[in-house]
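Anyone have tokens for Peptide methionine sulfoxide reductase MsrB? Sequence:
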Amino acid sequence: MTYTIVFIVYLEKTDHKRMKNFIMVAIAGVFALTLQNCYGQSPTGQSKPAPKAPEYSHSETAPVKKSNDDWQKILSPEVYRVARLKGTERPFTSEYEHSKEIGTFYCAVCGNPLFKSDAKYESGCGWPSFFEPINKKSIIEATDNSLGMHRIEVMCGRCKSHLGHVFDDGPPPTGLRYCINGVVLDFEKAKTAEKKFNSKRKGESGS
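Reply: yep, here.
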């Protein structure tokens, strides 16, 4: 209370010019403190790797069967909402929408290989788009008449998680557009995959 009174008295006795300078310095200090708080939190505010199920694998093909209650205990809220509740992420928010890196896209829920980067293209729809999956077994298609529309839903062929929809307005050679929610995709660069393969082969050979 004493400090507040002294501060007020100081302002009242200060001429207009000095008071203006004081206020400008105070505002600059608050602004600098705000920036420090924002940027200072960035390292700890970075998104953590999404939790993975024990069955998560890039090579295993056995079907993964879990109830939504079990999935909810494992997956992040955003992945669970899209993958298990058939939600949709906001358009133009996926880190993979404009990605041009070479590699493989996997199901973020179970690790099943879904799409190769050479099948990816810029559709402008707001979500990562592909003209074909890795193979016929990597995905499952089903009729979707929700929201008053007739669409073809695309699901993971291993865990049946919702991925997005497929449309017939894509480029050659298939003429298809697999419009996929980026949040349900994992990506591994080709060089990373090759390095892991070579490391594993070296370990098996004992050389």
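The radius of gyration is 26 Å.
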